[in-house]
Predict the 3D structure of the following.
Amino acid sequence: DADVTQTPRNRITKTGKRIMLECSQTKGHDRMYWYRQDPGLGLRLIYYSFDVKDINKGEISDGYSVSRQAQAKFSLSLESAIPNQTALYFCATSDFLGRDNYNEQFFGPGTRLTVL
Amino acid sequence: DAKTTQPPSMDCAEGRAANLPCNHSTISGNEYVYWYRQIHSQGPQYIIHGLKNNETNEMASLIITEDRKSSTLILPHATLRDTAVYYCIVKGSNYQLIWGAGTKLIIKP
């Protein structure tokens, strides 16, 4: 079984709809992240969480919200989807390994979201 | 936050060493350099990271210049399965990884 899973894998929705993307992990990591990727570009960080009581905005948080329901679950919501939120969305996890803040991130398979 | 510059694409013959360059001239003293790759549109996969010294693991080697302003990822014996987009990343503030557009590496038979 995959260590980081995302549901759904594909979603088509309409402008103005509320949508939730879910991420679950079995790696036991405290840190979780949501990224979006647009065609031909690298990943951009939306939100990240260092534990269940910690939520932080990333580079592009406007129009998104998150919920950290448990150590293993981190959900991303689009309250009112718009077409320019059409993108590939990735969830990732990492562990904290001490003083050098090294954080190898483990990624889920991605969710392809299309907003019409 | 430090940014990275990579060539948009490179070719390499199967079985040869693939050398992927990266410039990070504004890197600060305590920032690590990370390399990830992304095959098709799958989730990115960690390859290697380093601070000052050269590093090697089962996937690749990382050569960092003495002034730390550039680095090279080396895949010693490239296979067709190494065709992917390779990202050179430095860690920015608040533990964020700053991703560029990467290098699309095409391994040719």
